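Recap for those who missed Tuesday's class. We walked through two folding examples back to back. For each one, the amino acid string is listed first and its predicted structure tokens come directly after. Nothing is annotated here on purpose, so try labeling regions yourself before you check the end of the notes.
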Amino acid sequence: MISTLVVWLVVSSTGNLTINELHRTAQARLALYDSSLRAAVDQYRYLPYVVARHHEVIAAITGTGNPRTADMYLERVKQRSGAAALYVMDKTGMTVAASNWNTPDSFVGEDYGFRPYFSQSITGGEGFFFGIGVTTGRAGLFISNPIRGDDEIIGVSVVKLELDEVERNWQEGGETVFVADEDGVITMTSRSDWKYRTLSELSPEVRGRITRHQQYPGKELASLDIGQQLVKGTGIVTINSERFLFDDKHMQGSKWRLYYLTSMDYVSNRQAAALFITASGAGLIILIILFLRERELKLASQREAREFARIQALNIRLEEEIAVRRKTEEELRGTQNELVQAGKLAALGQMSAAIAHEINQPITAIRTFCASAKLMLERGKTEKLDQNINQISALTERMGAITGQLKTFSRKSTGVLEPVDLKIALDNTLQLLSPQLQQEECTLERNEPDTPLVIQADLVRIEQICVNIIRNALDAMADSSVKRIRIDLTRTKTDVIMQITDTGPGMNEETLSLLFDPFFTTKDPGQGVGLGLSVTYGIVRDFGGSIKAYNTETAGACFEVRLPLLKGKTP
């Protein structure tokens, strides 16, 4: 039993180590293949750009020059560069000049407007397309660039590269490597029988597009049915009963993917060698194990006992640390809630003068109506008492609304998150701050959509956010000649955005960088402790949102709060 386990461990470890070693080698080989392939492509990638800016080419496209002059220019460039072909097309896709103008398979006069590289470049981009030439029947890589004249695109220049030499080098190297395009078609490979095979079965749409572009005319594009096996990017793949270890790499500057395969026979051979060596020494190992077994069992028991005691002690310490951390977390949450509550009470204290003034007016009116009612009773004019009583009732309802809002705002948060309409929270806040806004002679502008803006939050803490920011804006405009606050509520596909802008003097860079730090304040001593915006920042983060402040282009500062939009819910 032990010997079997040892053999299995050795063989398994050998296999794993061999696979890891092969993966490292494969990554290095992939980098080398990728580098050589990109070098083969990049040495010609500039040609379409250079050709597109030559005056003879532009003249041939616009009709002001001789196309034959452009043909000979392209022929010279092709001979110097070693490219397979160079040619230029007008806006319709018709070839105007080509480096092979004097050969039987000349491109001149051919319409290649159906090729993707033409549509890619005629709209201003670089074209990159691999396919079989419809004129020559030879496969190659087509790279294109727009030709511009008088600030508009008047044609397309194209260089064709034939990568046969690169592919021959791969085949002579004796390694298994191939390139697949974005559709999973193998375009270059060291295994000739895999060329123009596909990793997975192509859909009718993809086959239709390939046919329209005449990308691989005459090729069956049969599937190797290995696409699902290659999804992981590394591992083992079976192709026609052959098992390979594979790694892949994306080729920069294209949609190609480079695959490097290593036969699993190498792993099997290494495992067989390990099995032989292990089996040869198995007898000796078994004898040694039997001889030392009793002693080892005793030592193992002692080690296990010590390890158990150590682990038990660690578990006890870990439980104690967890308990302390939980207690600390609860205390921190309690402290945060107390800070929020203290901030609300402080805000109520600072708003008390304006609220008292707001309540004092209906109280004075009630006294007047009561005195009038008493006088009516003394004179026996009871027919007008109903009107006085209605007035008194309306004033008491007004006072009740103010005190009710104070009571709602001062209550502690339950901590439970639920659907909340940000517009309703803002209504509650503005109702509470209305006396202070009037006292400060501050104009309020509010822009918002008609639909609800529902978020997952706590109504009490959302109101605290609004109060803190609006009161901060009021404090900032203390010395401003024009006091105006604009509140914009908008929504995106994922977020609700609240922007509160004031007409104050704005903030300097240092203040903006420290604005949400605890205990940072620009107010005079005794006017604040610098916790309001820090608490606001914490609440916004708790709701999964973000807050930032910045100066506007005109004057003043803007606070922007983003909160995740809760779709399909109503508060």
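Example two. Treat it independently of the first, because the proteins are unrelated.
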Amino acid sequence: MGKEFRYIGKPSPRIDGRAIVTGAAEYCNDVHMHNMLYGKIKMSPHPHAMITKIDVSKALEVPGVKTILTYENAFDWITGMPAQKRLLDRHVRFVGDPVALIAAASARAADEAAELIQVEYEVLPAVQDLDEAIADGAPQLYEQFPNNIISRGCPPFGPKALQDIVMGDTKKGFEECSVVVEGTSRYETISNPLPAESPGLVAWWDGPNNCTMKGSFQSPNIQKMIMQLGMPGVNVRVISCNVGGGFGSKNTVPMEGLYCAALAKACGRPVKLVISKEAHISTYMLRLGSRLKAKIGLLPDGTVHAYEGTWLVGSGVHSDFGQGQIANGLGRAMLLLNKCKHWNYQPHLVATNRCRSGGIRGFGGQESYASLIPILSMAMARMNLDPVDFFKKNMCDINGGYYWVEGQWWENHFLSYNDVMDHAAEHFGWKEKFPGWLKPYKVVGSKQYGVGCCVHGSADCGMLHGEAFVKIDGWGTANINVCIAESGMGQRSSVVKMAAEILNLPLDKVTISTPDSQDNPWDWGLAGSRGTLVYSRMVGDAAKQAKAELLERASEVLHCPAEALDTKDGIIFIKENPQAAIPWIAVLGPMNTITGHGVFEMDHSKPCFMISFVEMEVDVDTGAAKIVRIVEGTDVGQVIDPYNLKMQLEGGLGSCGSDSAITEEMVLDEGTGRFLTNNLVDFKWRVFPELPVFETHIEETPNDLSAFGGIGVGEISGAPLPGAIMMAVSNAIGIQLMDYPLTPENILKALGKAR
């Protein structure tokens, strides 16, 4: 049995629960300022063109219109990593690329003005396919990126950011293998997970070099960093409202942030810009495209010994953080194939004429695993290996080493997950339901049933530097200063529980600061499942430091060593004589405070892990694939809040996870460059009654990772599902499928039944 806690591991009310259900919680749509204007984007109807003429004269006559920016009068701001996308450009590169920005006194006036702007174009050839984009003679999107291959490098991850994996001697390695397979898999044009709240913000300027943004940002400091890179010399302050669903896609809102800031600067007034739901679907960021051509060699015992791959990663018109996502995907591949001695893994970030890609939940790792699994399945089937045994043999175990995103070598000193895999497999009934490769375990009329499994590992939970302060006062209250936004997971509530546990205060005596980049110390924010580990470490250390100083001061009043004291509910007492007690105010008085400081330094030696088992039903007459049951297993070290954990796991089930394997497809008309699924009718959402049976197998292994030993699973909760579903559907129909999504049309095509 682990330690008994007052709050940790137990359900407790969300600190913002009442505000959310009563409508008092502030979201972007609730933000209104005196003299505020409304922004609007006029978009290109062509996937690739040059503007030859633009006339805004009629639009400027619309009552209420204050400012219109075009490439002719826009600020010379540029964003992307590397910098590539200008604020406004004469050269437009996708359907939806902004050609003008409007600020008006009402949204209706801005809409009317957008319709009246007259634009003439020279239409250019467009390219949508990744292989075609890198071929000689393909239309070029940027002069600085020959063959549309975006140059490598990710400055936030440092000068040695992981950009490929070259180890050993692949030629020799393949010669030593007993089985070698080659294949190509595609996980492309997967939609934005489409949180209910569209991306938006309000921006205003305090003087020529100080811009403030308030809006729907999952990670305020990352938004600040990207904005300051795009607007050189400007100090940017970022304040997060409640985020109405993030899924990574609103970790930052970079382009919209620049558009809103530009309008606010040009007109000297606050501007609100919230994109429409149609624009959210069809012009906002998508998941990275992934096309993997790989050669994989296995030793007789099933160990992957040699790997050679070319990974084409689709960025669309540009990528906010593409090379960083590639670094992540490479690192996660090393966690999956951790015993592999010989590598030559070469990724290429490719620009095409569609909307940009960005940091969707999974952040490059999901794209990497989803593409790898079908090719690995070919090798496992060739050797008749049980997938669970294969993953146990090849997945990173204790003392297994790997490179991570900043290019540094790390070793796993946290935990072996082999027992979790076995226990979750038993929970699912894997041995009874897996009859072998490409075999259904049950057939009922035209419906065939197959099972599959997949793992996912990530070391992002120890990502980058962060700081926090915990301040206590004589009134028996505490305040946490940490830059953490609320994006739906309840992480702010969990952080309050952490401080309250250490200080032994009632939950309502602990508050947490507004997520404001100016008023809080630096922290990367909620990304990569880092929240639980990082905040537990730095908030826990800050609270411990404040408590230690409090007891040290109290020891002078009570005339005993600090080690003999403890505190509960704002009262300090002698452990062996609890009646000898004084309130905090007797030590601090009404006007003094103590502040503890906690720091987290980058530590990628504690990877988190998830295994998913899936049972699929496939109707071989219609091609319809239905998820029957899902079981996921992991070790979280220590549960912080069981309800929050449940929400994380179930929240990752559909959008971003399983649905990216079967329904989340953006159908692109390559002739016009337009998406045909840019509405909530043709975009196939599943509603709650269609969700499958979902079970979890959660284990807790005590550890000294942080104040309580918890480790995050938010990002990885849905990440194994595409690979598991691909395996299950392939087994159900007896054919190894390679490309996502598994729509009825694609399944019937594989069966030779497509019309």
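Answers for example two:
The chain has three domains: 31-124+196-245+250-282, 289-461+604-751, 464-600.
The chain has 20 helices and 34 strands.
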